[in-house]
Amino acid sequence: MASTSAYSYLHKSPQDVLNDIDFQLTLEPALLTKLTKAFLEEINVGLGRYGEDMAMVPSFVTGVPDGSETGTFLALDLGGTNLRVCEVVLNGDKTFRLRQQKYKVSDQLKTGEATVLFDYLADSVDAFLTTHPPESPLSPDAEVPDVLPLGLTFSFPVEQTALGSGTILTWTKGFSAKNAIGNDVVKLLQDAFDRKHMHVKCVALVNDTVGALLSRAYTSGGCILGAIFGTGTNGAYLEEVAKIPKLANNPAAAKGGYMVVNTEWGAFNNKRTQLPFTPFDSVLDRTSINPRFQAFEKFISGMYLGEITRHVLLSLIDAAPRPMLFGGKATKVVNEQWGLDTSVMSEVEEAWETRVVEEKEKVIKEVDPNGTEPRSFPGEIGENPNLWDGDDHDILPRWDILSTPEGLAQLSLKVKGKLERVRKVLVSRLEYADGDVSLRDAAIVRWACHLVARRAALLSGVAVAAILLQTGRAGFVQDVHSDSSLNTPNDVPKVNGANGIHVTDSVTNGTSKNAAKEEFEEKIGVGVDGSLIQFYPHFERTMRESLRSIVGADVERRVEIGLAKDGSGVGAALCALQALKQEP
Ligand code: GLC
Fold it and tell me: Which residues are the signal sequence here (predicted)?
């Protein structure tokens, strides 16, 4: 397996090597703003034409729910880590009940013949119906009452042609099933149901981001953006139909109003002109199954962060003339492509986190079993500012301090305790022998994880900021100071009018200042899902930091990020409901 070229520090000190990597993986606020501008451009190019990198897929979902919807539906969700089949009961009071079963999708299924994959999907629905016979009668299909309606959440780029049909554009996230691209995904699934004579009809097709947006709107009463930060990353938002020129000849264009658009933002800057690629990113891309695709996603999502970090670590393990990490040893986990799971990074960062008060005694015992060191934490108060403490502002490892017994002796007990916790995680998760991992190694790996994850969260902020700008809810922070009118939201779509359909408040400059202020101060609902945003330490905090630097603290404060719980299932159910209502 190709690896990143090893560092040579013949003419550099080890500290210079670390500084160099730190520099490459650190993003400055000015770059975030520049990227957001490029992102906005791609949004508008994609709204204008079919076939662009950022596909900006019209979903044909033209209203968002308000929580009063009712019905019982089947949902099938393909595109995350597992395949899920669910039965969703919408109670009509912003609540729902959901029963689900997860099924594994093997690599063989992901990369084999599409018909085999879709047969497996149909078998899974069949198995679910056998083990979970419907509790309440499923909302009948108006046309054929004994057929069960199903909503499909299919989280890959699809050019949707109607609520219930769409052509697969590309595979992402490790899928590459043959003879699928260019075909209608709903037909592929329906054919599989029909081959098995199942009384199930796929009536709606939805991306997981659209599902997140709809389900968050259903449970919270307002949401403008649904975003996934998990295995992959993507977002869907409510756009004015008038701003989607490529819908020109579609009847939807004549109806006007708003439509949910699935951005497929994972493909932002596939041309690689703006994103801050490092050698670690390039080797990941080159050795992935979709080189030159999903450029943005490869910087951000859970599928890739572990692999980027693995390449950073390998470059230090292989550094010449002397290794800089793990004494030059590599385990199977570290050697294998995709061997380092993003969850390891999360554990490493958690291990570092301060839980000093509860852990004080434990740490003292771990670090100092004989009780010979003073039982105090010099790192907490009155600490020598010249000492390396590894905290957020001082995370870059100090090679001199961490490389000698005298240097290590200067570290506070608190810092040693944290490093020891990280060291233990590395021994167990990277499968090293205890003696092969030093405290310096722990400091280096934790720094590498933090850099890669922080970069991901900052870039996630770029995507969210771009949607706020695109929908007129924000201005660039530097423009705001020079021209405050940029920050006045004209024609801001207000979600959740009567019947769950958005209404538009046209705010005229000057005449209704109070209304503008009120509107301006409204919360901006963002529904999110995915393992990174849910579990990675400080992911949301860092994403908000990015938002503040791009669109300012006033706007960032109003952004209400909430979990779109079971978004894929509930979103598919809500779409199935809309599809049945639309049936002639
Ligand atoms: C990938 C898919 C996209 C999906 C996202 C999150 O980017 O292309 O459709 O929404 O992953 O699952």
Answer: none
